[in-house]
């Protein structure tokens, strides 16, 4: 049986980003995995109870790991602390991954929920720093590797390697 993959809903064309847009990726691997019915779409921020559109938010210090350990917070551009919504969304996303036997995730780079290499630095000046989002950190802590939308071939290699069966 082919393993399932969790994916950021915005990458499949769902207009759930803070500004009501999507980030649809037209890629043969995505099309193949969709045709095989293996993609489980989730938007952690919507799952966390946040509306569309919503004020953009950034992790203030460090990254998602620090947020999950209670040492940092997520604040939106209007100054509202939205940490609890982000953590709730991460927990629901993890539950969806586990309930659906997902062996990996494809999440949107740079997002405070979904980023896996670089995220915005909390200053709302479009500046990025190294780090992972809150949901990415939650998945990685539970041994579900996260790939971004530029790493689909890497994910294909991982799936074909069978390493996820260990
Ligand atoms: Fe996309 Fe993730 Fe942002 Fe939702 S939280 S809009 S899935 S990047």
From TrEMBL:
<dbReference type="Pfam" id="PF04463">
    <property type="entry name" value="2-thiour_desulf"/>
</dbReference>
<dbReference type="InterPro" id="IPR007553">
    <property type="entry name" value="2-thiour_desulf"/>
</dbReference>
<protein>
    <submittedName>
        <fullName>Uncharacterized protein YbbK (DUF523 family)</fullName>
    </submittedName>
</protein>
